[in-house]
Amino acid sequence: MSTAEAASPAAALPGWVMPVAKTLAVIAGIAALIFALVASGIAPKGSWAHKILAAPFIEMREMPDLLVQTLWEGAVAGILYALIALGFVLIFKASGVFNFAQGIMVVFAGLTLVGTYELLGRVGLTGMPAAYLALLVTLGVMALLAVSVERFVLRPLVNQPDIILFMATFGLTYLLIGIGESIFGGNPKVMITSQLGLPRGAIDLNILGGRVTLQKIDIAAAVIATLMIIALAIFFQKTRIGRALRAVADSHKAALSVGISLNQIWMIVWFAAGVVALVTGIMWGARSDVSFGLQTIALKALPVLILGGFTSVPGAIIGGLIIGIGEKIGEFYWGPLLGGAIESWLAYVIALGFLVFRPQGLFGDKIIERI
Fold first, then answer.
1. In the chain, how long is the greatest CA-to-CA distance?
2. Which residues have C-beta within 8 Å of that of residue 115, sequence separation ≥ 6?
3. With the C-alpha atoms ordered 282, 284, 287, 288, is the resulting torsion angle positive or negative?
4. Which residues face 202 on adjacent strands?
5. CB 271 within 8 A of CB 109
6. Mean of pLDDT values over 183-208
7. 167: number of Cβ within 10 Å
8. Cβ-based neighbours of 187, under 8 Å, separated by 6 or more
9. How high is the pLDDT of residue 144?
10. How far apart are CA 204 and CA 326, in angstroms?
11. 343 with 328: CB under 8 angstroms?
12. In sequence order, what E strands does 104-233 have?
């Protein structure tokens, strides 16, 4: 380390501090500009400028309980988006492949769980024992999927261009859709929430002079997703397999030179992504039905990855929270001005803004190539 680097305060900070600080500074600058426009009279009351730039913030100040409710719902959605994005990050770090099939893996895992439980019900086994037996069977199916992908997709295509591997995952998506529709049908299924012991109902809290409602399933989803993210982060940072994964992510050739098996690492990573998909399918399925429409929600991980970076676990978490909270606030406060339903596309607009100003994401490294 040079003397200049040692003397720099920024050199002693964790790598995620500066990107987050810069993002907060930009948000603060935009807020200051808005208040300046309102105070100067450029955006008079009743004008479109006032409705867009001032009225939502006034509503936040006058009804803080609704703001807390919106922030909570956005945070829960953001944590679940981060969990989906984590599946993409794991595979991309290990193989450099963007796994387009991660979204349908969420649906396939959820359908396998519910379908197995229904099959067990036909032979007279129901309740929590059947639910957890179905969970074990689903884990076995995701392990089989990981082995199959490594053996029949990744191994034959090793050292092929990234676009070839990406198209292979694209084909895997439609293969899983076909298998899922053939076995489980195309109708939505109800997640076995109570059978798995997940809570139902809601908790009402008096906050800031109003009532805030917290769904118990949302609390459970936030806690379980957070614990899983922490467990995976510890696993890949502290264990031997985790260190091998990071070695593979840095250089396949260097990893092979020290005796690390790429095939074994790829199977482990795809199985880990399958477990993430299963947990995500349970949590999203508990909030709605399990159907092939869930893969659209899973694609919300794309803006999360753009914000956080394709190789960063902290980036997936921060990016998920930004997208989740941003789209909920946008839908509630600005949605009526734009005809509603902006939640379906706002995340991609936010991601587009980040692509323009920081293509590598908050936690990604700038890639400099010599020409």
1. 73
2. 183, 184, 189
3. negative
4. 215
5. no
6. 85
7. 14
8. 291
9. 93
10. 24
11. yes
12. 202-207, 210-215
* Among candidate residues 144, 120, 123, 148, the one with its CA nearest the CA of residue 132: 120
Domain boundaries, the chain: 83-317
Element (H, E) at 75: helix 64-95
**What SS3 class is residue 206?**
strand
Q: By the 8 A CB rule, do 350 and 322 touch?
A: yes
Query: Can you tell me the distance from the alpha carbon of 323 to that of 304, in angstroms, rounded to the nearest whole number?
Result: 7
Task: Judge contact between 162 and 96, C-beta under 8 A.
Answer: yes
Cβ neighbours for 117, distance < 8 A, ≥ 6 positions apart: 130, 131, 134, 192, 195
For residue 275, give both structure tokens: 């477990």
Q: How confident is the model at residue 1 (pLDDT cuts 50, 70, 90)?
A: very low
* DSSP per-residue codes, 98-146: --TTHHHHHHHHHHHHHHHHHHHHHTT--HHHHHHHHHHHHHHHHHHHH
Contact yes or no for 283/225 (Cβ under 8 A): yes
Structure tokens at 196: 């798995």
Residue-wise pLDDT for 87-97, tens only, equals 888 888 777 77
C-beta separation of 113 from 325 below 8 A: no
Q: Which of 257, 253, 255 is nearest to 243 (CA)?
A: 255
Distances (CA, A) of 224 to 36, 103, 123, 157: 42, 19, 31, 36
